[in-house]
Write a structure and sequence with these properties.
Helix content: over 70%
Number of strands: 2
Shape: globular
Order of helices and strands: HHEEHHHHHHHHHHHHHHHHHH
Largest sheet: 2 strands, antiparallel
């Protein structure tokens, strides 16, 4: 039902736009569709069933579907004021946003290569248009074209990898690939090559090193709400799929694959944090930050046990909240001329808009992993999973990179609390449109951030309850 509701909402939006364009009506339909989809998801009560051969609805699927739908709902709330103050045709944006959400939802319940590719392409094709949606901006067009070319290339790698895996195993189903792997003591070369090519395609979607080159330019050029969507739903959907594939195919027991992901995790943490140090563009800074955070998540992924999956789940929730909050502030402060993506736009923000500055400070401190925020508990969870499996090198790199990351987050916070005196600086201040939807969404995100940081037990229990059946595979 959640997927059917999204399909129905996309069709309804298309028909409404064909009859008469009305931003408020389309926005309202999109909000209602997300709420109804979440409500139908709650009716499942953690039950597990399959739709063979493509889909499986279990605790892991329900958790990821709920996370994706709620995140997309917040992106929708942040989008209204952002697009209301622009001249572009606004209504098709919501149609594309629903389709991209649908693609991510298909990804996280897939257990077959055909379903995986179907979900990936629905997500990717919608993102091509969303990234280049502000047609009058050169950077937006440039970002869309870059993402189109690189995503097509990564899809080709993924498809070729799937073909090689199918050639060796004779199946496209994740559980059946697992059955084949149990019958062989070590990976055949052709199968290892297939997995390697698939890692290229998956690595691109996750934005991890060395497949991260697109991230800074796309983050900078895309509209701020779309950037929030890419940083959360797009990457979270692929991470959900990756964990399902590795658990059902029993790929954790192969040292070669684990070594590849260990190298990628270390490189992502180092490159992401070091490249963020010199950034003066907030969107690019957050892009490099997201590369580092995916490296952190891979530490828990590599644990390959129940604690690791719990840590990934908790960190995804914390990371989604903080990323939505950070990019939400960018969207909130942007006006008709440009996005508020320069560090100078935030100089003295506390003295102009103290509430917005407070929320942004909380989000940045959470990304840095400071206590009393969701990010701190999430990072602690990941450290625990790394220590539990004695991945000492990864744990050391995680601690070291968390210290490096603290510098560039503090740099932005310091700019917000700086005094601005010159008349020229005051003239440069952006004049965004105010919206109840955006303000309310930011307030809720700020409260969630602190609540999970202070009282994480309820979220931990929810995750354990939902994942109880899925984690029997570990």
């Amino acid at each position: 039902m959640p997927l059917l509701i999204l399909v129905g909402a996309a069709t309804l939006n298309m028909l409404v736009v064909a009859v008469k364009r009305n931003h408020k009506v389309i926005f309202g339909i999109t909000i209602v569709a997300h709420l109804v989809a979440v409500f139908t998801l709650l009716q499942l009560n953690g039950s597990s069933y399959q739709i063979p051969p493509f889909f499986v609805m279990d605790g892991w699927g329900i958790f990821n579907l709920g996370l994706i739908l709620l995140t997309s709902l917040f992106v929708t709330l942040l989008s209204y004021a952002y697009f209301e103050q622009r001249e572009e045709r606004k209504e098709e944006y919501y149609l594309l946003l629903i389709l991209a959400t649908l693609g991510a939802c298909v990804l996280v319940i897939s257990q077959h290569f055909m379903a995986l590719f179907l979900g990936l392409e629905i997500l990717s094709v919608a993102l091509y248009s969303l990234i280049a949606y502000l047609r009058t901006r050169e950077r937006s067009d440039e970002a869309g074209i870059k993402y189109l070319i690189l995503a097509a290339l990564s899809s080709a790698f993924l498809l070729f990898g799937m073909a090689l895996v199918y050639a060796v195993t004779g199946t496209m189903s994740f559980p059946e690939i697992g059955v084949y792997l149990q019958s062989v003591s070590e990976l055949p070369l052709l199968l290892l090559t297939g997995f390697g090519l698939m890692i290229v395609g998956i690595g691109f979607k996750l934005g991890i090193v060395p497949f991260h080159m697109w991230a800074p330019d796309v983050y900078e050029g895309a509209p701020a709400p779309v950037t929030a969507f890419i940083a959360t739903v797009s990457k979270g959907g692929m991470m959900g799929l990756l964990i399902r594939f590795f658990s059902q195919a029993d790929a954790y027991r192969y040292a070669n694959l684990m070594l590849i992901f260990t190298i990628i995790a270390i490189a992502s943490m180092l490159a992401g944090n070091l490249l963020a140090l010199r950034q003066k563009n907030i969107k690019r800074l957050l892009a490099y930050s997201s590369i580092a955070h995916l490296g952190y998540i891979l530490v828990a992924f590599l644990a390959g046990n129940r604690l690791g999956v719990e840590a990934v789940s908790f960190y995804l929730v914390a990371y989604f909240i903080t990323s939505l909050g950070a990019f939400g502030v960018v969207a909130l402060l942007s006006d008709t001329e440009r996005d508020a993506d320069q560090l100078e736009d935030y100089r003295g923000l506390f003295w102009r808009r103290p509430a917005t500055a407070a929320v942004f400070t909380a989000m940045l401190l959470s990304l840095a992993g400071i206590p009393l925020t969701a990010g701190f508990v999430g990072k602690f969870y990941i450290l625990a999973s790394g220590v539990n499996t004695q991945q000492w090198l990864l744990v050391l790199m995680l601690v070291l990179n968390s210290v490096i990351g603290l510098y560039y987050y503090i740099k932005v916070i310091a700019a917000m609390f700086a005094q601005t005196k010159s008349v020229q600086e005051r003239r440069k201040v952006l004049h965004p449109a105010l919206s109840f939807a955006s303000g309310g969404a930011m307030a809720i995100l700020g409260l969630l951030l602190i609540w999970i940081g202070v009282y994480p037990t309820s979220l931990v229990q929810l995750i354990r309850g939902l994942l109880a059946t899925f984690m029997t595979t570990f």
